[in-house]
């Protein structure tokens, strides 16, 4: 090949590359425009959701509205205030994150609306009629706080509430009525699962960490790294037997559940074992016993593995008995006893770009989401740099990464792992590692890295967020949130 031919080939390759990059950019902005476009006269259903529950409920509410007019389901951050100003009807379905904060896909909208209300005394949204459904957890003091803040801000902007704020308590959570995940077309359909393996990763008593493997009775559903599994836990068979013995009831007695005769021992699997009144129909009392609340877990695997895995910290009640959800998954569940669970789409924690650096930060059972993100890149043969900062208590009892990652540590050329042990020498938390490597953290973020944080919000999640704020500055961190490069899978 002559020098001229090499030159023209190089030019052609450069032009082809530029065309490909241009196509990617144009496609990206086209998708953004489509996502944010609202048809004139459409009924707007806007959601702010940190873990996907509010998004799911918004989609269900949109189905209830019928088809007599266009309905647009849209993330709150994708909804322009000017678009809302021209609208007539809107429903807001919002959860509360952390200590009363907006979810990450609602922060920018709320900030803009709040800022307008502070600076202008005008009825910006006077043509809008709306209602708010707020999701929260009554176990925390800031129950549905963002729903209340949004409701107040909308009223200050001149919008008219057509109903009082409706609240839904996550502490009493059950599958949504008419759950949209049940439709035959949905990849997030509830399925029957069985526990096939319970592997203890650490050797610490009283805070055991398990990797739990599940198989579905039907074909595995689709999911992505970052998604969540909501399970319907069961009572331990010993607890059911004690309850039946207390009331001298036969476990094989059949009672009608939605018209289907069902043995009492199966009915009690998913019910809160509350006391029965001395008088009255016992069957009716049993049927009125509330279901056990759902438990949510970050998925620790990807579909390519052929199994769904969770990493679960076994919790204990003050009397020493295991928690309902964690005790069921790590101790009592077995392959002979199926249970229901469904995958929940969690788009804020999806990381589509596999060719950019990734910073993974977590502690304890937060290893679940971290493992899934690593698995996604492992099976995609990504060679991008990955920096993992993981925290646990004891270097002797809690060195869980080798067992959880299997051979992956040698499968990544650019994987860097730093572990922080609070009871090691020196005692460190993940935020201490971040502070010591602040320059390196700034550099990898400047190179386009995504940050994914998984684990408890109280303590670790809060400390990591504050440390990132200190290192990057609040404005820069908010920009990462707006660019969807900062993913928080904290609970």
Automatic annotation (TrEMBL):
PROSITE patterns: FAD_FR, FLAVODOXIN_LIKE. The chain crosses the membrane at residues 6-26. Its EC number is 1.6.2.4. It comes from the Bacteria. Keywords: Electron transport, Flavoprotein, FMN, Membrane, Transmembrane, Transmembrane helix, Transport. Gene3D superfamilies: 3.40.50.360, Nucleotide-binding domain of ferredoxin-NADP reductase (FNR) module. Residues 188-371 form the FAD-binding FR-type domain. Residues 43-198 form the Flavodoxin-like domain. This is NADPH--hemoprotein reductase. It comes from Alteromonas oceani.
């Amino acid at each position: 090949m002559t020098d001229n031919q090499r030159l023209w080939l190089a030019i052609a390759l450069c032009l082809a590359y530029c065309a490909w990059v241009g196509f990617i950019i144009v496609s990206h902005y086209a998708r953004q425009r489509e996502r944010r476009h609202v048809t004139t006269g459409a009924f707007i259903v806007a959601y702010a959701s940190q873990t996907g529950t509010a998004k799911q409920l918004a989609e269900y509410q949109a189905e209830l509205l019928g088809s007599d007019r266009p309905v647009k389901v849209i993330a709150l951050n994708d909804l322009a205030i000017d678009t809302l100003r021209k609208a007539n009807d809107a429903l807001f379905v919002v959860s509360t994150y952390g200590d009363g904060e907006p979810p990450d896909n609602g922060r920018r909208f709320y900030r803009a609306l709040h800022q307008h209300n502070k600076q202008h005394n005008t009825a910006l949204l006077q043509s809008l009629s709306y209602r708010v459904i707020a999701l929260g957890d009554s176990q925390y003091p800031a129950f549905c706080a963002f729903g209340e803040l949004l409701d107040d801000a909308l009223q200050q902007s001149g919008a008219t509430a057509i109903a009082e704020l409706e609240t839904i308590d996550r502490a009493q959570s059950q599958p949504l009525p008419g759950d949209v995940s049940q439709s035959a077309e949905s990849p997030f359909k509830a399925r029957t699962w069985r526990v096939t393996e319970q592997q203890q990763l650490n050797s610490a008593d009283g805070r055991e960490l398990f990797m739990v493997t599940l198989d579905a009775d039907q074909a595995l559903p689709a999911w992505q790294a970052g998604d969540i599994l909501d399970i319907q836990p069961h009572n331990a068979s010993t607890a059911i037997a004690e309850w039946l013995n207390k009331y001298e009831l036969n476990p094989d007695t059949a009672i009608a559940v939605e018209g289907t005769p069902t043995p009492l021992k199966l009915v009690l699997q998913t019910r809160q074992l509350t006391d029965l009144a001395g008088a009255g129909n016992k069957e009716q009392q049993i049927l009125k016993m509330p279901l056990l609340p759902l438990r949510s877990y970050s998925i620790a695997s990807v579909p390519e593995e052929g199994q769904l895995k969770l990493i679960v910290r076994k919790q204990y009640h003050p009397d020493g008995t295991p928690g309902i959800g964690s005790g069921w998954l790590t101790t009592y569940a077995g392959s002979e006893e199926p249970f229901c669970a469904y995958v929940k789409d969690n788009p804020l924690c999806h990381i589509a770009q596999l060719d950019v650096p990734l910073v993974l930060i977590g502690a304890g059972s937060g290893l679940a989401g971290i493992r899934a993100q690593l698995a996604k890149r492992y099976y995609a043969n990504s060679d991008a740099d990955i920096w993992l900062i993981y925290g646990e208590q004891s270097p002797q009892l809690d060195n869980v990464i080798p067992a959880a990652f299997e051979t992956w540590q040698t499968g990544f050329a650019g994987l860097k792992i730093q572990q922080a042990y609070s009871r090691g020498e020196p005692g460190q938390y993940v935020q201490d590692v971040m502070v010591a490597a602040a320059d390196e953290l700034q550099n990898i973020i400047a190179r386009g890295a995504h940050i994914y944080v998984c684990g408890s919000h109280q303590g670790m999640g809060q400390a990591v967020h504050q440390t990132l704020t200190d290192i990057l500055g609040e404005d820069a961190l908010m920009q990462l949130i707006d660019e969807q490069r900062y993913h928080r899978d904290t609970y």
